[in-house]
Amino acid sequence: MPGEQLTLTSTEAHSSKASVKHFKRLFIGGESRFLLACLSTGFEPSFIYVGKSNLNFVLMYKAIKVTAHFLGGANTSSQAIDLLGRVEPGYVLVHETTEHPQYEDLIKHVSQFFPVIRLFVFIDSLRLLENFAKINADVIVADCDMFLPVNPFVQGLMAMITGTTYRSPSVVGYLKQLNAPIDQPSSQRIVLSLRDQQLLEAYVLGLSNREVAEHLNLSVHSVKTYSGQLLARLGVNNRQKALLSIAKMGISIIPKFFPKATIDA
Predict the structure, then answer these.
(1) Do residues 159 and 264 lie in contact, with contact meaning Cβ atoms separated by under 8 Å?
(2) Are residues 163 and 234 in the same domain?
(3) Rounded to two decimals, what is the model's pTM?
(4) Can you tell me whether residue 259 is helix, strand or coil?
(5) Shared-domain flag, residues 61 and 75
């Protein structure tokens, strides 16, 4: 109503503060891991931002922390392509805010002419995938996944450094609902699906195939099959080597799929 002032109740204010605190905690640790991984691998952490949301740009920009790594921003594909003619970032952060792709031309251009530059696509709406199911990007993260225990934004950054591909859980789930293909990695790239993350956590906890099957409501045969496929993609032959492999990629496993097993352990 005109002249009416809106105020937060104490409960609402506490919830808001808790969310902000959680948001900061997710990113501070991730920033350190990201920069250390860049130093150890020689990855160039500089980037350009392409999008039309000033608020989300500020949040992502602050998540990186090192202002010198920001080489410029653009609102359109053509502006971004022109910018790439003047600067050489380690990756391009593309923010799709609508249900229809706005930066398809840019993504194709980077893939074709700048193969060493990584593409990180952040999407506000999963319905974008219906119109653009096969996005040729290294990383695709959905806004709805940003407060997961394992921060997908940081996971995506780490994936780029190690030459792997990453899709946040909601993206993987939505593509499966559409029966759409999830981008196939090259021989040197790895996609860690939701099932892969579950198995890796089980490896950390030391769960047997039977225990994993019971927790995930799968057959033991299915668990063995999924586990064998994961080990093959990582190029290893046992669980210990698999954990060493993802550790080298900078990917952390935080228990979230097996809470009861975590407590019992």
Answers:
(1) no
(2) no
(3) 0.59
(4) helix
(5) yes
